[in-house]
Amino acid sequence: MDNKDKTAVGSYRRPGVHFSPPSGWVNDPNGLIYFGGYYHLYYQYYPDGLTHGAMHWGHARSVDLLHWEYLPVALYPDEHGEIFSGSMVYDRENTSGFGTDGNGPLVAVFTHHLERGGTVIQSQSLAYSLDGGNSFLKYAGNPVLNPGLRDFRDPKVFFHEPEGRWIMVLSAGQEVQIYSSVNLKEWEYRSTFQSGDQEPGEIWECPDLFPMTPENGDTEKTSGQEQVWILTFSVIIPDRKYSCVRYFTGTFNGSSFTSKTPAGEKKILDLGYDFYAPVTYENVQSRRILMGWQNRWAYAERLPAVKYRGTMSFPRELKLMRSGTDYRLAQYPVRELLDAAAPYPAQRDGAAVLLPGQPCYITLELPLRDETREFCLTNGHNCLKILVNTNTKELEINRTSVFPEDLGKEWLCRKTCLREIKHPESLRLLVDTNSVELFWGEGEAVCSMLYYAKAAFTKFLTDHQEVRYELYLAGAEGREKPDESMQKK
Ligand code: FRU
């Protein structure tokens, strides 16, 4: 089968439904906000090279979270330093005074990273936009928060209605600090959150704090009124060999976050190797959308690349599931994926399902048996293997033949287990050029993995005819919805 894609750059083609930058280097998503009918995505960007350099905020926007329009760079480095990660708020009431009454500004709150004579200082600064996020002016009073620390970054800001104040969470070494403000310019320290189980030397990055209402109950029906606060952050150790994204569930009283996550319980947002620095969208009504960098610092700067390096995860909608007396986040691809997914009349060739060579979403119904099932995405030469046991709830993704071994042998195969999955018979795969995102159960287990196959996958091999599957072309124009939604109860 000829899989030559006309847009191919060498053997590395752009993903179909995942954001990639026009050129240059990308890492964390920044300033995620829905405004003026668009989902804005600002991002850590180095336009002049394929590795992390002097950071800017790149900018793109989308109406459907699938198709992205590139826009001019939003923030350039300046005399206070490079522009590291941060967030964006809509200052509707013009509390900052950057706008006018009736025309509140969008305000970016970001980290200025300054390196001078071997010393690093990170401080928080502001920039504002009066044209819906297209162009920005930096605040003349920058920085607005500067205790002179080295690891003090990634502010995520939101408006807390009960207190009538802006709240900022940011990472400070091995802790998350919380500040508040009435005008975004003057910040008052409120509290510090520590997990109590930090490893020596680990650093926290990119925190987020937001409320959610639990969806369902294992043991009791919830009233739907109860609010649970979720604190997320990314963790990395200095040699970058280990990183992950953690979350805690608890309460927030406008000043401090109190974890209700049982001690010793480590909640991880993504069980794969390629998901980091996620944050959620601001200003979206009635759903919480999360997007992360689809990568891992351990090898991010050495991944195969031609014109650009780095992609974002596919945006996910979060749900909070009650699990006994505890809570767990479930994640699904945002519904826009399904809205624009055309059912693909895939043919079976023995145990192989023929793939279209384009991004696709595969939904599987597995038999519930104590056996390990094996699935394989292949182009006839190389394959990405997935092994699943619905009884022991063990999962293995083996990319040995489709991932550069010189990036580190430890990254070739991911084995993991999540005992809390309630419907392990349900497995969904979002397969795009260079990545697979696996959503297991009701989305309680998500696993993101990059791959670099020489040619597009042409077959999905199932080890048994009993496995029921449906296939959808992701990002296709078809408007017919899959019958079965991921949110089945
Ligand atoms: C996370 C991170 C942030 C920082 C940014 C710099 O990946 O290290 O903590 O602001 O990247 O690009």
CATH homology superfamily of the largest domain: Glycosyl hydrolase domain, family 43
Indicate the CATH topology of the largest domain.
Tachylectin-2, Chain A
Strands, count: 35
Helices and strands: which structural class?
A: mainly beta
Pfam families: Glyco_hydro_32C, Glyco_hydro_32N
Keywords: Glycosidase, Hydrolase
Organism: Diplocloster agilis
GO molecular function: sucrose alpha-glucosidase activity
Structure description:
The protein has 1 helix and 35 strands. The radius of gyration is 22 Å and the shape is globular. The two termini are 40 Å apart. A hairpin with a 2-residue loop joins strand 21 and strand 22. The strands form 7 sheets. The protein has a 7-stranded antiparallel sheet, with no helix packed on it. It has one helix at 335-339, and strands at 24-35, 38-46, 56-62, 69-75, 82-90, 106-116, 119-129, 137-138, 145-149, 152-160, 165-172, 175-181, 188-193, 203-212, 228-236, 243-252, 257-259, 276-280, 289-293, 308-309, 316-323, 326-333, 342-343, 348-349, 352-354, 360-365, 372-378, 383-389, 394-398, 413-417, 426-432, 435-440, 445-450, 459-462, 468-473. Mean pLDDT is 91; it is low at 1-11 and 477-489. The longest helix has 5 residues, at 335-339. Beta-D-fructofuranose (FRU) is lined by residues 27-28, 44, 55, 84-85, 111, 153-154, 205-206, 276-277.
